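Q: What structure does this chain adopt?
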Amino acid sequence: MAKQLGLSPEQLTFLATLRGAGSRPKRLIPTRFHYHKELFYLGAYLRAAGREQGAIIDQFRPDWHGPTSVHLIPLTNRLEEMGLVGIESYPSRSEPGNAGFRYTLSPKGVEMAEKIVRNLPTFFKEAMVRVDSEVHPLSLRKLEDKVHSEFPEFWLGL
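A:
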C-alpha cells in the first residue's frame, strides 16, 4: 500500500499513528515526546502479538526520556514538505531555551491517513486502538512513568 500512495513504509506508519485508529482522527499529537512513545508502543504491541511489524521497535534507541525513534525527525520533516503534516514549535516549559513540537495532519494528510487506516490489517488497527486508549491520553509525566516501568532498558542514566 505504501508504494501505491508514494510513501515509504515508515511514512505510512507515521501517518497512520498520527491519524489513530478510532472513529475520529486524533489529528494532534501534543509533543514530540508523545509521538516517539506512541510509535514505540505500536511496535511493542505488534511484537507482543507476534507480528513482524513489531520491528518498528528496533528503530528506537535508549534516551534520557525513554525510547527515541531514529527516524521521527527526518520523516516528519519530509511529511511536512509533502504537505501532509504540520509541525508547530512552542517554547518548552520543562527545558527553558528549547522548543517543543506538536504534530497535526493537514487536510491532505487527513485524506491520505484515512485511506491508510481503512486498508490496514485488523491486527495493526487493534494495536493502534491500544495506543489510542492506553498511551495517547497520558500526560507527559504519566507517559514517562509508564515507559520507565515497562521498558527500563530504553532509559539512560538508570
